[in-house]
Batch of 2 targets.
Target 1
Amino acid sequence: MTENELRRILSGLKIPTASNIARERARHRAALALGRTETAPNSERAVWFWRLTAGALAVALTGVLTWQAWLRPDAPREDTAADQKILKQMQALFPRQVNAVVDDNGKVDLSVAQSPEVGSDQPIVVLFQRHGQMIRVLSYSGHKFCLPLDGHEHCFEILAAAAGGVILEEDDRAWLTAGAPEIAGYSVRAQTLEASL
Amino acid sequence: MGRSRRWTPRANNAKDFARIDVLIYKKRMRNEDVDAPDDELVGRAQAADAAAFTVLFDRYYDMIHAFAYRVCLAESEAEDLAQETFIRAARGIATYRGTASFKNWLFRIAHHVVIDWQRQRIRRRDKEASFAVEMEAQAGLRAPDHTLVHAALAQLPADWREAIALVYFEELNHREAASIMGCAEATLSWRIFRAKRALKKLLSTKGEIA
């Protein structure tokens, strides 16, 4: 195909005329957009831009730091009383049978043993968090519990370590939760509850 | 016979007179603006002169609308794309430094608008846009040659159509078109080559080319 042929063929494409309504609407909106951008001189606008950006960054940083402080391993401490109360209630219903209480964003699941053999000497709370989702597990040292995490079932054994630390074991792996490990995309924190149950 | 019409403002009070002064000023400016060069109008638009920007709008709207239509091949979408191009141009006119002509600067904005349109199209799984193109091609409301070319262009990828639109309709050279599309000149030439080959194949099967 020669250039002339191509041009001849392409010239056959007729362009529809834009409607007056569309044209006027576009003109009006563009004129409004022009007014919005030119309300302040460039230099002054730049100063305000940087001031606002710095302010927004400061607010965001404060928010992030507050959030991180809130999520530190010792953060669940204020729920300790509630956790202990839940475990007490479960123990009252199923004496020496409670294996774990799993609270997945308000959906509570209870794991109990068939016979009353389960020890309940050291209660532990484990938190799994990801993108606003929080799974809270109340269980005891030496117990095993299973959770669906990221589409796969993970089974952990929890052990109370020295100085209130908690060790989380899964098959051939183990994590010390004081280091806030990440498991299957969830950040994990845990602490022992007071052995007052 | 040949009597020219004059625009005669009328006013009833001082407030109206003040308003009319503004209108006379704007009208006079508009008449002078029509022949003003782009650079002058752009400079004034950068200083928030809406009348200057409106002249630029009127000067280039049809060109941008036609470009948008040649890429998207749907009337309603072309109007939306042209509008979005001018809104972005208005917002970003302060950033225009005159390194390229104002026309090519507008084409570059239109190119980005087209890219966003393509992304939206992909997100909508091409349903609405393809439907619009298909309906227009099937409607047969235009001349047969239009329908054939329209249908053939609709078969090409949008970036090939854009390259064809810039080079064959807007008469830009490959270097300018490549600059607008943000690609290497060789890439642009390759797109043109492939588009031509595809058009030849598509149109020859439909009897346009012997």
Note: Chain B has ten helices and no strands.
Target 2
Amino acid sequence: MTDWLTTILIALPFAGALLVWGLPFNRFWAGSIALLVSLAEVGLWINVLVDFDFGEHGLQYEQQVTWLSDLDISYHVGFYGFSLWLTGLTVVVMAAAVAYAFWVGRERARTYFGLMLFLTGAIVAVFTAQDLLLFYAAFEAMLIPLYVLVGVWGGGGRLGATIKFVIYTIAGSLLMLVAIIAYGLSEGTFDLVDAGTSGSSWIFLGFVAAFAVKAPLFPFHGWMPDAYRESSPEVAAVLSGIVSKAAVYGFLRIAIAKFPEPAQDFQIPILVLASIGLVYGSLLAFRAPDLRGVIAYSSLAQMSLIALGLFALNDPGFDGAILQSVGHGLVSATLFLLAGGIERRSSTGELALLGGMARGRPALATVLMTTGIVALAVPGSATFAGEFLILAGVFREGWLWAVIGAGSIVLAAMYMLRLVSAALHVRRGSAVSDAALDLRPAELAILVPLVSCLLALSAWPGAISDRAFPDGGSANSVNDRLAAARETADGWTAYGPLEDDR
Amino acid sequence: MTAAAWVCLLAPLAGALLVTLLGTRLSRDGAGYVATASVAVAFGAAVFSFFSLLGRDPEDRAARSDAWTWLSVGDLDVSLGILVDPLSVLMMLIVTGVGALIVAYSIGYMHGDDEERRFFAYMAFFVFSMLLLVESGNFLILLVGWGLVGLSSYLLIGFHHERPSAIAAAKKAFIMNAAGDAAMALALFLLIVNTGALDYGGVFGQVEQLASGEWVVNLVALGLLAGAVAKSAQIPLHTWLPDAMEGPTPVSALIHAATMVTAGVFLLVRCHPIFEAAPRIQDLAAGIGAVTLLVAGLIALVQTDIKRVIAYSTMSQIGYMFLGAGLGAYANGMFHLMTHAFFKALLFLAAGIVIHALLGEQDMRKMGGLRRLLPRTWLFFLIGGLALAGMPPLSGFFSKDSVLASALDAGTYGQILWVAGLIGALLTGIYTFRMIFMVFGGEPSAFVQEHLHKEGDAEGPFWMTSTVAVLALLAVVGGWIQIAGLWHPLASFLDPILAVEREHLALREPSGWEDLLTSVLAVGLGLVGIWLAWRIYGVRRTEAPAGAGLRRVLEQKFFFDEVYDAVFYRPAAGIARMWTRWIEAPLIGGSLRGLAAGTRDAGGRVTQVQTGFLRNYALAIAAGLAVLAVVFLSVRA
């Protein structure tokens, strides 16, 4: 039974999607079924979490069915510690997004909720796939519903946003496909667990380009501001909260684990791009004129920060990148849903027209303030812990990276406080009417669990960062660990799960 | 003992959560009682910890307790842990003791405010954060507490969130402190890399090794000092503190006078092994203190807002503490920290009664003649003012003189700072009594006669007067705990942590004549200052006879705000605007518009390839296969 859990986690949403598409449900039943399936996914995930052995190095909850033995292509799925956390983020945020869409009442409900369920299944598949072609199929399957969700249910400029989004992601996907085929053929297998490491810079760069578009990283973020602005809030929450984390997973599972030498060779250029993105995104967030613009550019900055952690190529960096992925995913999703709530009340997200919403709306003020504080990584929050790990990791690669990162702490405070104050404080904005309601119980039922997750992680960030990767070595100090990692040619494979010792 | 410390830490957090979660089910006053009770419980626990600590041998007075591993940095496990030792217990007593009085005072002061519950939840949360800071068992939890007090300070400064000035001040305070936090975080990274530890014992045990690479220990000390300077509003990171007076007066008393802003001094003392290994940075700390005490004293001379005068005097007094701690006179600095908490909280709360009585007015030029109208407040304020000016036998006299005398004992550099401190004593006398004469002296002004709210007792309800009375008592007797030449129980109490591994005395004990000389000069200069204030403001009630240019420089607070605006804010905003216009819009957003158009054109052109002739397709397929074959072969090889 436990072997099937992973497959059930993937298949259940797909089955739900087919059900919703196939049968003539009305809006209420389509939404209810989607919500039920999403919550069942959370339950299943908790079930996986409870029995998970975080000290174990290999793949868990593994299932493999050979498909094409000649090319060694198979249906192969399973969990590592870090993929388990990213999957957890996925099911929680998807449940919130589905619930929000249900509450708002989207048009053409059957199509809509079917797409959301399909998306859930595809993202879970991305985070569990252990075969490159399966991974690729899941990656594409994740994008297609997004194109439709942005292009049909988006705002006024949705068409332009969708076109940009499609062009960027297709370009990235094609590069990745070429890279996958080249890598798979050169290794003689498409199985991620069996495949060895490669030294090819070109294949590495193909993967990096695809993931850099997906994250997005500077300067591949052209699709991002429009897509985040024009899509409906819950889709923006999914895009920035979890779809971007597919890039984190790809970097970690493929680009870094399978290409140790190219990763080392290109470490500096990637760190430079990430640093630029961090400062660039933070400053643009500081001047963005609308709620979603601030959140979008802050996402660019946060994804750049995560990239800094990943390409620190050491333990604290990896741990921090996973913790920050979960933290940013929850923060970003909560913020987009809140932005959606504010836009519904004032019919605009322009900061200049908002303001004074705290007066008489304690629930909105509390939730937005709490999320904003976590988003700016106040010491003690889960995001602070993630940043601290990332910067501690990247500090070893050069103090300058950490100085830039520390500077971004100040910038984050600047743009986040600006957002919070512009919505909540000072005089009432011209678009805010006195009749605008506080958060409704249904909205609270969606947002409070997300915020509670963040607060729980703030009390114990180690729950994720210490359990993303099993302990790799016995060296006592971080220094030794790093030195050891540098001395051994295949240093990364000392980091537990990336070492595929079956 | 550690259990009591945990209770002390968690009681205010429980209070804050209770007030938040109960919401409107709790009456407004009820929220005040819950918050006060939670801090009072914390005080009780702190007293318990104190006595159980006293019951141990001096060498054995430190206990660690870890709850769980908060975060692992590589192989380094950092626990959510506390350290109970004389230094943290002293701070716990000050924070919860003064804190309980101020929160109780707030029940009266905030009565009738729309959002009392939010206020008390924030106050209790602040006390929790401050306790986390002082009880922290390692540098990371210290940084967490450090950030959380900054957060509660932000929330409370911006409590009146409909006021633009309050929100601007709150943001400014947070961002300046975030810069300090960032510097501290960098120091922590250096510690991790170079010592592989973040707990105090582990780091301090390796100071020798840290000091072998000279720049490392200096950088660590510099990073910590930057955090301390930002939190304690020392020059050059001080500009947020005067603006922070936008918060309600009890907030100013608790956070921006008695506790949070003195955290920098606590840090200097807590991390003294690091600073001693980096003597140049330690000297820098003392120098910053001296410069701050002079600059703040000068600016205070021309302020017209009663709370801002007290705010600048806070900066100035913390300057004395930095001076002491920077010269290695840790116990003297901590002594001044303690008495300052008493008399400065007293001054703020008494000023709060004045502001309360005048329905929110803070401009001293509109006040006057309150001596007869608010006689008890006048007495309290006078006690606070005399203690601040260092008049015997009030508490400020003993602690300030002990800092100054130890400076005189600390070589040439110390003697230079000693002179600065004496000039500061003169300035303190002038600005303090300028304030007192402007507010209480003379005849009641027209404004006062019109606005003094007459119903009931103008000096405030029970909660306000009683708590101020207790603080007044402390401001009188608080200094007697340590009298030069007679006894020094405070210093002996702190001695174990300050002197344990290094042969260093906690208390610099200046010789008798140094003490005498300092006391005579400091008191004399203070009296001269009071006399000057009397000549200028008491008798004639005019503005100070200063040149217009100097006046302007002082009123503009030495142009720090303007410089920061020009150096940081405008460039950042300008760069952001430039990038939006020249990079984001044309290159990244616009390129795509071009790309989209290009794709459409390309699509059109590709359509023409679909000729419908089989031979063309066959050729294309063959060519494609050939390319693929070449690719696969080359990859395989």
Note: The two ends of chain B are 71 Å apart (CA to CA).
